[in-house]
Amino acid sequence: HGLTHIFPSPGDILALEGPIENRLGELGVTSARSRTIYALALALTQGEVDFDFCAQPEEEIK
Q: Whole-model pTM?
């Protein structure tokens, strides 16, 4: 029961050529979801989103 799949890195998502909807659509991902995945990848690489552990969430919210 180990790891069997991985998701591409944000950089890999951003490096895809052509409209993201076309690239991920080939995998069955809807256009809206494709654009959301792309926007999240962009936000992660620009440091706008951070999923690291936060020891004091109350302080992070401020």
A: 0.75
